[in-house]
User: Fold this.
Amino acid sequence: MEQPDVDVDTCVVCNDSLDDYHVASCQMCGGKFHQPWSDTAGVPQCGRVTSHQEALAIVFLCQDCFDGLQDP
Assistant:
């Protein structure tokens, strides 16, 4: 019996595969990226948690989008 192709989500920053737990979605581009939820997670930090001053909320941004905000 042929097995179906399994879509493995990959990080928009480093292109490595993501697990089902240590992941977040970027508020700007919508891409998924590595977000370790503990110090011992063993996954890279491919994004940032930051605040959105107008919405008074905490948001998750992939490192690429975060770096784009920092460029003048």
Observations:
- The chain is about 10% helix and 25% strand.
- The longest helix spans residues 63-70.
- Helices lie at 63-70.
